[in-house]
Amino acid sequence: MADTLRRLTHTSPFSVLQDKLESWHRDYHVISCDNNLNRCCELIELTAKVQGQLFTILNHTAAEGGHYAGMDTLKTRLLPWLGTCFSMARPVVSDDTSLQLIQDSVEKDRRIRELSASLDSDIQRKDTELCSTRLQLDSMRIGRYSAGTDVTKRESATTLLATEEEILELKADLRSAHEQVESYQRKMAAFIDYERQIRLLKDEVSYLSTDKTVLQERLVRSRSPSPLPRLSRSSSPMRSESPTRAQLTNSSRYARLISRFNDLYAVERLEAQVILRRHIDDVEMVQKIIFIAVVESFKTAKLAYRQFKLRVRKTLSLHFGLEYLEDAAVDYIVRNLDLYDIQASINDVINAMNVNPRISFPQRWTFSSSVP
């Protein structure tokens, strides 16, 4: 609409129409009748073009205003003008004609109101239908969503069950693997124990072989004390000359000590009980005396061994360096056990037991009288 109005303004058709009217007025009495008619028709055509453009602008303006905008203006201005222009010219308008026009106008107003009411009802009905359609769509969407949710829940439950089954299977596999590992560990521990026992047996056999050799040498030698061998610094190390030190392992010493203690407990202990029961009636005191005798014997033997070793080290220090002195001293003690003064150790044990306050025995009786 604005473009049409702008074009109409720029072309200035009314100025052109005014110029043509003035030119026709000047030449009206000069030109012929045909020319006057031609100019009149030209002006009518120009006026029709302007009216056509104005009606176009009117149509666009009414369309932009909506269905009911500008209705009063059209009724009061355009319709009467159209009725006046397009109706046949009559010299006189009667009262009946005016009444008829009023009735027609009222009828038109009534029809317009009815159309407006029907349009409003149609609009309300359409709005109601639209709301119901929206509600149906929402319900359908909710139904689809709930159905999809149920399917998802079922799938999730199925997946969860499958996952739990897999977890149970994995736990069972893990337990079986732990059991296998434990069985392998037990087998490995048993194998290690077997190897340790084999090593102990080998050490024991080696020690017994060495002990057998030593005993055979002692049987060959005389009862007199053997002098210390003359050894020089140029001799080879003691580890290579005498295998006795190497064969005396801790396991061998432990096994020999246990064996000797078992013999003491099974044989010598019973013999000592028989001898002591001849003089002491209290069985508990007899057992206490035997226990104290064993303890004092171990103490005395340990002290005697230490003193014997110190004397041997002092003697061998003139012939060996510090590197081989310990091995040489131990090897000499093992080879010359007959130099150990057993009677002196027995006397020390008896003296310690005679003064022990935890032992009670009859008067005019000593432990030395019971020693064979």
TrEMBL record:
Q: Where is the Mitochondria-eating protein C-terminal domain?
A: 254-364
Q: Name one GO cellular component term.
A: mitochondrial outer membrane
Superkingdom as given in the UniProt entry: Eukaryota
* Keywords, ordered alphabetically: Coiled coil, Cytoplasm, Lipid-binding, Membrane, Mitochondrion, Mitochondrion outer membrane
Name one molecular function that GO assigns to this entry.
Answer: lipid binding
Q: Where is this region: Disordered?
A: 221-248
Q: What is its main location?
A: cytoplasm
Q: Where is the composition biased (Low complexity)?
A: 222-245
Residue stretches in coiled coil: 160-187
Looking at the keywords, is Amino-acid biosynthesis present? no
Where does it localize?
Answer: Cytoplasm; Mitochondrion matrix; Mitochondrion outer membrane
Q: Which GO terms of type biological process are on file?
A: mitochondrial protein catabolic process; mitophagy by internal vacuole formation
Protein family: Belongs to the MIEAP family.
Name of the protein described by the UniProt record: Mitochondria-eating protein
